[in-house]
Amino acid sequence: MAELPGPVLCGALLGFLCLSGLAVEVKVPTEPLSTPLGKTAELTCTYSTSVGDSFALEWSFVQPGKPISESHPILYFTNGHLYPTGSKSKRVSLLQNPPTVGVATLKLTDVLPSDTGTYLCQVNNPPDFYTNGLGLINLTVLVPPSNPLCSQSGQTSVGGSTALRCSSSEGAPKPVYNWVRLGTFPTPSPGSMVQDEVSGQLILTNLSLTSSGTYRCVATNQMGSASCELTLSVTEPSQGRVAGALIGVLLGVLLLSVAAFCLIRFQKERGKKPKETYGGSDLREDAIAPGISEHTCMRADSSKGFLERPSSASTMTTTKSKLPMVV
């Protein structure tokens, strides 16, 4: 009997195992799934295999933009028991429990924006290891746009250009933006108004006085819409210069007032200071030298009848002066 080549033998063996029901096949929708905020999402997953005692089902979740390797479990079924786990444990369940007849559909109630991502349905049924038994479902939670924020930048004088911007912090799918001007107004010149529905920006060029008015931005997706308004005031260039000059004059007057106030305050504080007193180290003209008493310097002259006082402190001595006697 001739031997079969290796690849032919392996192919025949795999075909035999598949026909024997030893290969797990998982089926999930190919199209992404979307569910409105707060509703219940059903993530359909079916499989075909001969369920045995080692059958196990696992649902896991990975956030958008991250690899499958970073997924984390949200529900187990093994040994005949169901084990919800993780932050979604109170909101996840199986459409059919136990999931042993080919249906492994997951139910997720009260969906949140954070539930948007990829869900993995994986069936393990040893010894069925001939396929990966894995299905991926992408879920998007639909959220209406939040109230957008309107802003404006640029030159708002005649002949200038300005940009009006609009953005919503929430909304899935991402909202588109449309600017409209309220009221009646002349038709703008071609190219003077250009808007980007994706970024929410409206560019106004070659402004005129008729460009003034109220502009409304509307953010829209399949869940609803929200809007904000902005008032644009276009001025003459001369008005802008006059306004700048007036502001400069007011600032100058304010600075002068502050300087005058500080000067007056300084003068008042200076006037309140006490005058300087005469120093105690200076000698008066009639002062008595240290160590010489007044009794010593003054004596009575019985013949003359007057008191003699030295002319200065420098000529004073403790001896009596001799006066010439007149015969």
Describe this structure in words.
By secondary structure, this protein is α+β, with helices and mostly antiparallel strands. Among the domains are: 26-142, Sandwich (Immunoglobulin-like), CATH 2.60.40.10; 149-232, Sandwich (Immunoglobulin-like), CATH 2.60.40.10. The protein has helices at residues 6-19, 237-271, 294-297, and strands spanning 25-27, 33-36, 41-43, 46-48, 56-62, 72-78, 81-84, 92-94, 106-108, 117-124, 134-142, 149-154, 162-167, 176-181, 193-196, 201-204, 213-221, 224-232, 299-301, 306-308. Strands 2-11-10-5-6-7 form a six-stranded mixed beta sheet, with no helix packed on it. A four-stranded antiparallel beta sheet has the order 12-13-16-15, with no helix packed on it. The relative contact order is 0.10.
What's the layout of helices and strands?
Blueprint: H1 6-19, E1 25-27, E2 33-36, E3 41-43, E4 46-48, E5 56-62, E6 72-78, E7 81-84, E8 92-94, E9 106-108, E10 117-124, E11 134-142, E12 149-154, E13 162-167, E14 176-181, E15 193-196, E16 201-204, E17 213-221, E18 224-232, H2 237-271, H3 294-297, E19 299-301, E20 306-308
Parallel strand pairs: 2-11
Antiparallel strand pairs: 1-4, 3-9, 5-6, 5-10, 6-7, 8-9, 10-11, 12-13, 13-16, 14-17, 15-16, 17-18, 19-20
Main location: membrane
Transmembrane segments: 242-264
Biased composition (Low complexity): 311-327
